[in-house]
Amino acid sequence: MEPNVLNVVLGDLLVKPWYPSFYPEELVGRRVERLYVCQWCFKYSKELIPFLGHTKVCSLKDAPPPGTRIYAKDCYSIHEVDGEEHKLYSQNLSLFGKLFLDTKSVFYDVTTFLYYLLVNTNPMTGSRQVIGFFSKEKMSWDNNNLACILVFPPWQRQGLGQMLMGVSYELSRREGRIGGPEKPLSELGRRGYTAYWSATIARYILSVPMKRNVTLRDVSAATYILLEDIVTTLKEMKVLEHRPNTNKKSNSAPDEVPVLNKAKVRRWALENGVGLVPPVDANALTVEWTARDRREDAGGD
């Protein structure tokens, strides 16, 4: 389907949506040439004058984004926003995100989700801009650590999606739960995750002594990536081999088992320029978040 919002204005940027919007028809209409979206709170209007009036008094104009800052590194930070506590903000963010996400389906029932805002701070002016986000369910029976992910188009192709994915897995590590993104993935999402998984697996292998035997379960335990995602990624990397199952104890057991070829992984890492530095610095998790985690672990409010 063709986008029904032809152009969207975010701050001083004019961006062309990729997909149809789910903005209320009674407010936006069936088709609009230009939609104005507040760069701070994501409220929207198809009329310029009311929009300009809002930008003068927006409560987030000179304030940090809502929620708790959980990560800060260089000019980037990530804020955790509770959809129930900041319902209108989360709804407006989701509606804006739908312009660039084909599979996003939750726009209004946001109370069961957490949103993680990627914030860029201008080092010269100190101004802050949300440039992407990911969301996840507060309670996922499938241990999904991410529901949807988006870096806004003007800031794509800078490796920021890898940062968001890295934070989602760092959250899994802190929670002690191996997980992954909600499936099925879009083609764009599949490519992004394959890049993240392959680089993460390669970094782990590079950190392990060459003579040490490494199983796929070892990789999963170290990276918090699901075993099925590891197998799929290793096949894409062409570093997975199958060897006779010497521990076969029943007729139902497979004749061959998948084995990781560490030498091929190291060669793959060299050919693809994968270094030892991950996209997320675990030490950059902020004091506010670690203090909150201690309170929750202790059963406090």
TrEMBL record:
EC primary class: transferase
User: Could you tell me the Gene Ontology terms of the biological process aspect for this record?
Assistant: regulation of DNA-templated transcription
Task: Report the EC code(s) recorded for this entry.
Answer: 2.3.1.48
Keyword presence, Thylakoid: no
What are the alphabetically sorted keywords of the record?
A: Acetylation, Acyltransferase, Metal-binding, Nucleus, Transcription, Transcription regulation, Transferase, Zinc, Zinc-finger
Gene3D superfamilies given in the database record:
3.40.630.30, N-acetyl transferase-like (3.30.60.60), Winged helix-like DNA-binding domain superfamily/Winged helix DNA-binding domain (1.10.10.10)
Gene Ontology molecular function: any one: histone H4K16 acetyltransferase activity
What is this protein's function per UniProt?
Catalytic component of the NuA4 histone acetyltransferase (HAT) complex which is involved in epigenetic transcriptional activation of selected genes principally by acetylation of nucleosomal histones H4, H3, H2B, H2A and H2A variant H2A.Z. Acetylates histone H4 to form H4K5ac, H4K8ac, H4K12ac and H4K16ac, histone H3 to form H3K14ac, and histone H2A to form H2AK4ac and H2AK7ac. The NuA4 complex is involved in the DNA damage response and is required for chromosome segregation. The NuA4 complex plays a direct role in repair of DNA double-strand breaks (DSBs) through homologous recombination.
Question: What PANTHER family would the database entry show?
Answer: HISTONE ACETYLTRANSFERASE (PTHR10615), HISTONE ACETYLTRANSFERASE KAT5 (PTHR10615:SF219)
Its recorded name reads histone acetyltransferase
Specify the species: Lasiodiplodia theobromae
